[in-house]
Design brief:
The protein is α/β, with parallel strands linked by helices and 249 residues long.
């Protein structure tokens, strides 16, 4: 394993055999300016080595990231990583949990193009990094690999030819479900908490009598709630209504 960068704060290693870059904080930056400077140095190296996997060892990191820095990270670090070959990213959580929570938040808040995993030990992180990325389809598993982004920032996915049909079907089903939920979020927000609760039971094929018993209310009340749910959602067919309930139930 080769040391490719070292400063007062950060040390970077490159493992040729695993095609892995390891980032180890020797000490925590004491300002956001220093943190950004170290990140830019890291991105420069990543563009040079284009490693498939990335491991962050956060034991000594204690700097809390504010909202502006979180957005800066996505634009100046995460997107360049994806464009330059990163497929998997793992963090080993440091002793300062609040500081690490601000890192977690940075990926969620920006709907990051990078989806890292977080581990308690380096051993667990390395084990995950060495695993092939798998996608379930029925009882079998289909391999697929992310090859970064093209010039127009479209995601590139590489598939073995024999897996294309089933994998694309799986991806399409997931995409359709996500689009349906996104397009109907406003309708879902119209429902009261009780109506959402009843809808959940209906999506599990529970009858009105069973729902009434579980919620300690009358069957008449369940029917009234169901009537109100249908009126608020205003779907043209029962098929669309059932699809909605299955998506949010």
């Amino acid at each position: 394993m080769e040391t490719i960068y070292s400063s007062n704060y950060l040390q970077t290693f490159y493992d040729v055999e695993s095609n892995l870059i390891i980032q180890k904080w020797l000490s925590s930056p004491n300002s956001l300016e220093i943190f950004k400077s170290e990140m830019l140095a890291f991105v420069y190296l990543y563009k040079k080595y284009r490693a498939k996997n990335l491991l962050w060892l956060q034991k000594n990191f204690s700097l809390e990231l504010n909202s502006d820095t979180q957005i800066w990270l996505e634009e100046n670090v995460n997107i360049p990583l994806l464009k330059n070959g990163n497929k998997k990213c793992a963090f080993v959580i440091g002793s300062d949990l609040y500081a690490h929570l601000t890192i977690l938040e940075s990926f969620d808040k920006c709907h990051s193009c990078i989806a890292p995993k977080h581990f308690a030990t380096e051993k667990l992180a390395r084990k995950w990094l060495e695993e092939e990325l798998l996608i379930s389809h029925g009882s079998s598993k289909k391999r697929f690999f992310f090859d970064g982004l093209d010039d127009e920032d479209n995601l590139i996915i590489r598939l073995p030819s024999k897996d294309i049909k089933h994998t694309l079907k799986s991806l399409n089903i997931l995409l359709e479900k996500e689009n349906f939920k996104t397009n109907n979020q406003k309708k879902f927000n119209l429902l009261t908490n009780r109506e959402k609760e009843i809808m959940m039971y209906i999506s599990k094929r529970e009858n009105h009598q069973t729902i009434a018993e579980k919620l300690f209310i009358s069957v008449h009340t369940v029917r009234t709630h169901y009537k109100n749910i249908k009126a608020k959602l205003n779907f043209e067919s029962n098929k669309e209504l059932l699809r909605f309930m299955n998506s949010y139930g």
